[in-house]
Amino acid sequence: MATLVSVIIPTHNRAALVREAIESALNQTYPAREVIVVDDGSTDETPEVLARYGDAIRTVRTANRGCAAARNAGVGVARGQYLAFVDSDDAAPPDRLSLQVPVLDAHPDVGIVYGNSIAFGPDLPGEQVHHPVRPDPDGSVAEGIFFTTRIGFDSVLLRRAAVEQAGGFDESLRHNEDTDLLLRVALDWKAVCLDVPTGRHRWHAGRKSWDEVALRRAVLASTERVLAARPEFRERLGERAAIRLAEVRWEISRGLAARGDTVAARAEATLAWQLHRSAALAVWGTMLRIPQLVPAFLWTGRFLARSVGFARAHLPRR
Known about the structure:
- The longest helix is centred in the last third of the chain and has 20 residues, at 239-258.
- The protein is built from 14 helices and 8 strands.
- By secondary structure, it is of the alpha/beta class.
């Protein structure tokens, strides 16, 4: 008998987009699947759109508590042994589950299987293939997620037991709750990366991830919690853990500077400097002392950030 997969679609006020996500889940070539849509307190026509699907989907309606809570609500009613998530503005390739399920079936120590992700939408000149970080030879992808956050959640299939062991989604996070869960799962389970697209994510102005400062603050909170909860992981990372924290604070600083809040940007840069002192951070701190020059230098932010990443990459692993 084929293993049942629960496809969970959280949505909030996306009546115009959720149809495509639902259709992509219903049109999977893998037959043993259920589609659960969690309406996170929508106030638009979303309930009417969902009602048109009748028994083809299972609908859960909740008060508006955010994506993490909506996903947890979907997991709570799911019957499948494997869990796939599709955001309501995204879509799943039709062969996604057919490609991923056999991997989890064949490898009981694997909790995550993922692949490339295709970005699409009106804000892009054409479809773009995003390649994720790959697991280490031993199957661990925890360090890759920790340092890059570069796995598209739209491309992931998770073992339900792994999600439950990790404690589900952190509902205190309004951003980065998906990568936070992946990291916690990856600390205890192996991962497999497929060299094919298994996700499609839409780029448009309404994506919550466009708030770069809020996103990076959530990454920082998640990173600090994981390091506190898993001291053996922090010990394994050594100095690279502090460098990563400094990098995230630096990204927050640049985002604040772009908004014109140089006072808060300087505060974040100071905290980054306390975590890891580098020439690039020293230059950035100097720039922030001359606010009128900051806009002209912001375009160099990506180059400066990569200096931190370069230093981290060349530290020996423990």
